[in-house]
Amino acid sequence: MPSRRDTLKIAGLTAGAVALGGASRTGAHKGEHLHSESVPHKGHSYAPGQPGVDYKPVVTPDGSTLPFKVVGGVKVFHLTAEEVEHEFAPGLKAFCWGYNGQVHGPTIECVEGDKVRIYVTNKLVAPTTIHWHGVILNSGMDGVGGLNQRAIKPGETFVYEWTFVQHGTFMYHSHHDEMTQMAMGLMGMIVVHPRKRTEPMPDREFAMMLGTWAIRPGAKRPDPNVMSDFNVLTINAKTYPGTSPLVARTGQRVRFRIGNLSAMDHHPFHLHGYAFEEVMTDGGVIPKSARRPETTVLVPTGTTRTVELVAHNPGDWAMHCHMTHHVMTQMGHDIPNMVGVDPKDLDGQMASLLPHYMTMGHDGMGEMGIHVESGHMKVPENSLPMVGAQGPHDYITMGGMFTIFKVRDGITSFEDPGWYDDPLGMARPATEAELSRDGINPDTMHMPVNSHGSGTSYGSGHSGHSGPSGRGEWHKGGHDGH
Amino acid sequence: MKRLAAYMLSAVLLASCVNVPKDAGFSELAELTAPMLSAPAEWVGETISEQSANDRISALLSSPLTEASVAEITVLANKDLRATLYGLKAARGDYVDDASLPNPFITALFIDSPGESEEDCFGNLTKTDIPIGGSIGIGYEILDLLFFPRTLKAAKAEFNAAKYGSVRQFADYAYKARLAFYQAMAAKQMVGLAEQSYKATEASAYSAQALYDAGNIPMLNVNREKLFAAQMEAQLIQAKRHQKMAERRLAQAMGLHPEKAGSIKLEGRLRTPDRNELDPLPIQGVMDRNLELKHRGALIQAAGARMGLSDVMSFVGDVEGEFEVERHDGKYEYEAGIGFELPIFNFGQGKREANRARMEMMAQRYEAAMYSLNATSRILYDELSAARENVLLQRKKVLPLSNKVLQGMQLDYNAMQIGVFDLLAAKREQLAIGIAYIESVEDYWRTRAAYEYLLAGGSPEIAMTSAASMSAGQSASEGDH
Ligand SMILES: [Cu+2]
Question: For residue B56, how far is its CA from the centre of ligand 1 (angstroms)?
């Protein structure tokens, strides 16, 4: 076992190369490193960071934080890899692999400079290892099976040991038979707080792991052999409506630490109602000068992205992967396109052959979840095909990698506050008076179709135009042809 | 001479008390065929009038056919079967004929000459007067009489052979009608499934057209579905063709006039075999009851009896006794004589050798038939056990599983994991399994009919099933779509 001094040496920390904070980073000069230090480490040691003192503990929605104890100045953790029957959302359970009885594993939370000793017990049927993704440590602790260590056989307990010489958002996952073991869920988040703050401490921090699974409706185990047709898309191993909302008080500084360990997918993660700033990757802090406002952050697989905002806009805000097939649960992709198909008397024709047949999809798939949830459309046991959830105003036709960021004025509890009742009003059917006031005829539609900018009206069978009155004359698009 | 007379007298007595069955053995036929028929044997024109038979046939045809009504109609309507009964009657006649003493041969000569004119040397005719006279002679084949008891024995054996042959034929017609019934039932059920399969492909094509109309798929896909539907329509036509043929065959087997073939009613479906295990094969009973063996046995007996005669005849040839009374010139003259063949050139050696060889041939054929029957019995028993096991397995496992699979596919369809085309393909697969099931039930009933026929004394033919056709039921699934 290498000594701590060796660890530091191997980590490439030379005296002259220590950069303080994120501010001094200008580029990868010879001998310089890019990971983020807020304090010097060479020749320094720090007392174990304390929650509530050195940091406000991160919230892992639908997950937990791994407890630790301090033994001789070292934070000691224990992870046990094992099979877990995990619920992705009510109605869908599967036998997955996780740590300490949960999927994914608990978040490991530390402070820069913490010395850690992590025991890993293997209670799986297969050998395993753990790799500490993004963490700067000595090679022998890196956890790649065969390369850095031998695999931990079932029944064995290994110990990993290092000092965090950086802060940031990292991840841990199996690095033995990754294809199988990560598909089964063996992963978790690591959050390391800076020893010294150079930026305001966030009030709320959320750790979120994005993942993809293949679980055939009716099956009870993820299929690691699937390469592209993932049908259960998760945030912290929960699929909507299984995902718990992220709650903040208006005015709070909020950080989302988002990791992605999907097998084959990157996720453009989008938040409604806000612009945010990407402040960190798993490589380190992004210099302020390089940050830009975003509404969607692309989280490629094998990376973390940390974004920050001040929650100035109360409401219920959708937060989801913007890939539309990633906000569907257990969708089949080999089905014919039924959109716009006139079912005519097909249902009648099928009645004698298949009494339970019903033409579906001809008006889209939005109604699907309602049919399933109401129970009149029987689906395989233990499945959530195309299911969303009932919202305050209607059925929410979203599933998969979808959750809700709930911002409320003056709350003290961060339990789910329920649905937001917007005092400023919401979209509703237009009244006749409004239509008349603004000269809107629902039966006509205006589209500029040629370079002369002239609008052509399309209506249902008759060519209407915008009306004779002086009210609501349409302004042509600002360009007037050539 | 005295002894000869006594012998002849006893032969006459024997002839007079031969017991030839008055109904030509019909009651025995009825008794022998009873276990093979699920209907009483009748002889239209003898035991039942033509009119009552026709009324009964019409009554039976007005309801859906069953094994029993098929047998009854066959008994009442089948002209071949009726012909068999006349064959039996003919055999009885032959027996009566053989069981009668041969008649003597009488020659009578009567002379009443007008006289003869004689021409003298001068050309004058002189009439000679000759008186009236005549002679009566009785000839008798003495050997016929001597060997009469033996002839009687042969005749009886020949009649028995004819009787068993008739019973066999009689039962065979009923058995073949039963087979035709199962075939027709199965063919009808097949049409039902073929219709559904066609419907399923038609619905597929219909869906494809709807998708095309919506702009969602190219015409190529529509045409593929339509092509498949057309193929299934062709299969339906084939199934209907088989049904029609099977019904006509059934009518034919029952002996109905072809015009009546259309009035056949078939309803319901072939039953599943009962749960009771098959009793062990009663091989000895099968051998004892077998009509073919009885027929062959009677033929050998007859041949044996005939051979005894033939042996003597071959050596002695004809022995003819003759007695003649002649009246001549008012006086009676008596003459008696015996004539026989003189065996100086042909001692009958060849004939006897041929007789022996023929007997041996028949004996060997009898043995061969026994072996063959024994083998047939075992094959049929095994076949029936296997056919029964197959149907029960299909019933207990294959059909319920295939239904579960289709239900699962319906759930998958509901869960949008598969589309309408896959769902319909799954339905067709289920129907294909249904077809395989009907094939297995038909196979079972045909085998069972053969086995029951065997137990009752029949000799059913076994069609060898090719290994390839045995596994045909497994190719239930159709092409990918
Ligand atoms: Cu995504």
Answer: 80
Residue B450 falls within a domain, yes or no? yes
Q: Inter-axis angle of helices B420-455 and B399-414, to 10 degrees?
A: 170
Is B206–A341 a contact, with Cβ atoms under 8 angstroms apart?
no
**Which of A305, A325, A345 represents a domain boundary (last residue)?**
A325
Q: What is the mean pLDDT of residues A389-409?
A: 94
A447 touches chain B (CB under 8 A): no
- Name the residue range of residue A451's domain: 429-482
Q: Minimum mean pLDDT among A66-70, A91-95, B318-322, B449-453: which range? A: B318-322
Q: First and final CA of chain A: distance in angstroms?
A: 77
- Candidates B203, B210, B214; nearest CB to A353: B203
Choose the mutation target among B202, B403, B420 for the interface with A, i.e. most A CBs under 10 Å.
B420
Task: Establish if B8 belongs to a structural domain.
Answer: no
> CA dihedral in degrees (B273, B276, B278, B284; nearest 10)?
-120
Nearest by CB to A331, from B215, B414, B416: name it.
B416
Distance (angstroms) between ligand 1 centre and the Cα of A321 equals: 4
* Torsion over CA: A47, A283, A256, A310 (sign): positive
CA distance B297 to B303: 10
Q: Cβ of B416 and A336 within 8 Å? A: no
The CATH number of residue A278's host domain is 2.60.40.420
CA of A45 to the centre of ligand 1 (A): 41
In this complex, do B413 and A357 lie within 8 Å of one another by their Cβ atoms? yes
A109 and A252 share one domain: yes
Q: Can you give the pLDDT at residue A24?
A: 40
Enclosing domain of residue B354: 36-114+134-480
Distance, in angstroms, between B474 CA and closest chain A CA?
A: 22
Residue B223 identity: N
% of chain A surpassing 90 pLDDT: 71
- When the pLDDT of each residue in chain A is averaged and rounded to a whole number, the result is 87
Backbone angles phi, psi at A428, to 5 degrees: -155, 170
Coil vs helix vs strand at A187: strand
Low-confidence ranges of chain B (pLDDT < 70): 1-24, 112-132, 315-317, 464-481
Which residues of chain A neighbour B200 with C-beta distances below 8 Å? 353
The domain total for chain B is: 1
Q: Do B416 and A368 touch (CB under 8 A)?
A: yes
Cross-chain residue pair A349–B210, CB shorter than 8 Å? no
Residue B31 domain flag: no
In a domain, residue A79? The reply is yes
Cβ <8 Å between A218 and B420: no
CATH number, domain of B77, equals 1.20.1600.10
Strand A108-111 and strand A69-71: the pairing is: unpaired
Distance, in Å, from the CA atom of A127 to the CA atom of A131, rounded to the nearest integer, reads 14
Within a domain: A32: no
Asked if residue A460 belongs to a domain, the reply is: yes
Query: Is B175 part of any domain?
Result: yes
Q: Cβ–Cβ of B418/A359 closer than 8 Å?
A: no
Band of pLDDT at residue A15, cut at 50, 70 and 90: very low
Same domain, yes or no: A318 and A444: no
Query: Angle at the Cα of B427 (from B425 to B431), degrees rounded to 5?
Result: 115
> Are A86 and A103 spatial neighbours (Cβ–Cβ below 8 Å)?
yes
Which residues fall within 8 angstroms of residue B44, CB to CB, at 6 or more apart?
Answer: B50, B53, B76, B82
Q: Is A25 among the domain residues?
A: no
Q: pLDDT tens for residues A426-441?
A: 999 999 999 999 999 9
Of A342, A365, A378, the CB nearest to B416: A365
Tens-place pLDDT, residues B228-271 = 999 999 999 999 999 999 999 999 999 998 888 888 899 989 98
Q: Which of A325, A347, A365 is the last residue of a domain?
A: A325
Picking from A63, A60, A94, the residue whose alpha carbon sits closest to that of residue A330 is: A94
Give the number of domains in chain A: 2
